[in-house]
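Changelog-linked ticket: xylulose-1,5-bisphosphate example.
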Amino acid sequence: MPAAVAVAVAFDVDGTLVDTERDGHRVAFNRAFSELGVDRTWDVEHYGRLLAIPGGRRRLDHDLAAAGLPETERADLVVRLHERKTELFVEMAESGLLTPRSGVTALIDGLRAAGARLGVATTGSGAWVHQLLDRLFPDRFDEIVTSDEAPRLKPHPQAYTVVLQRLGVAPDACVAIEDSAAGLRAACGAGLRCAVVVNGYTRDQALQAADLVVDGFEPTAAVLADPHGLHPRRGLDVETVLRLLPARGSA
Ligand code: XBP
Ligand code: MG
């Protein structure tokens, strides 16, 4: 009788566990600009374009360079801006302003009850990731990998490769839950199956490589109203996630 194979689910953070970008990180960046006397404001549309650049520090450097700031003046300013932005984002996390995406906590608890090991693989900085996850998802994840442990940022697969090693599972025994094309590429690059839960910034991205694309963790009204259950953009429940894994040994 083959032993049961450990399975795992690795969650992305920004845009997946919490819809952090538009009203979280973007707002914190703008407050840091204002506090440090930098004449920049990232509106929703401009920040959406900047999200193509992984990592807040790189995003800042790219935008200030595009605004004509020479590298000699940018280097120190980018570090100070990102440090202040991170402090402001932690304050936002601690204020209760940031909440889990609807339905994601129930999925996490259901996967845990089904015996899956749970990990996090994010491009975000450890300084705020641990604060946010401790507050919103206490004691739910077995391993948390941030840009501190995986400095090669998505779409590079390093965050997923590291979380797989720490969880002790093989790539084909793990499903990634992502929100973006960059995260999808990182998960696929590490050999994981991947379900994408889109959001306002990622809905129109190229997601053809995903094993499943859904609008949210809970079925939308259109799905519930669909008598034949054929609506393609259903929610994401435990069985749907575990069905993405290849057949595995049973106890
Ligand atoms: C999203 C990112 C991060 C955040 C900002 O990470 O690209 O850079 O936008 O956080 P993921 P930092 O979707 O992988 O969770 O400013 O700490 O980089
Ligand atoms: Mg993300």
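Closing comment: Example verified and attached. The two ends are 7 Å apart (CA to CA). Strands lie at 8-11, 117-121, 143-145, 174-178, 193-197, 212-214.
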